[in-house]
Specification:
The protein is mainly α. It is about 80% helix and about 0% strand. The chain contains six helices and no strands. The longest helix is centred in the last third of the chain and has 38 residues.
């Protein structure tokens, strides 16, 4: 094992100067701006729903999320969201739109295998970890809230 680590460090030392430098600050700024624009667009959609359909702050959330998912899925299908993701990096991974992109791109990739064995079984491979993490996180937050409320009362 020591010999392997030594070879790996020698390799990294030898080829590190030849690798292009990553523009971390630029990438961070672009991700922040694009992520903010996506969130601002979601807020704009939410405000329009509240204005035109007389929805309350509590009831407007679901149609807003569904609209963002639909828009991200359509942009993925047309290949626009992939270009946005290449440009914006993590900024395009705003949870709802990034999740929609992951699901839609997996479905498009496996559509030739059929609806059930292609799209249905492969769509959640990429997004499965996100679903599991979300469920476990929600459980832990709920459990923490229950414990805090129990201790306070």
């Amino acid at each position: 094992m020591d010999a392997d680590k030594k070879k790996q460090k020698e390799y990294q030392k030898k080829f590190a100067p030849l690798q292009p430098k990553r523009p971390i600050v630029r990438n961070s700024i672009v991700a922040y701006i694009i992520g903010g624009v996506i969130c601002a667009f979601g807020q704009w959609i939410q405000n329009r729903y509240m204005q035109y359909f007389d929805l309350t702050q509590e009831t407007v959330v679901s149609p807003t999320i569904a609209t963002l998912i639909l828009i991200a899925a359509l942009l993925t299908g047309f290949g626009v969201y992939d270009k946005l993701g290449q440009f914006a990096g993590a900024g395009a991974l705003v949870p709802v739109t990034g999740f929609s992109n992951a699901m839609t791109s997996a479905a498009l990739e496996h559509r030739s295998e059929g609806l059930v064995l292609g799209i249905g079984s492969n769509m959640f491979k990429i997004a499965g970890a996100v679903i599991v993490f979300g469920v476990v996180s929600a459980y832990l937050v709920g459990l923490t809230r229950l414990l805090v409320q129990t201790l306070i009362n």
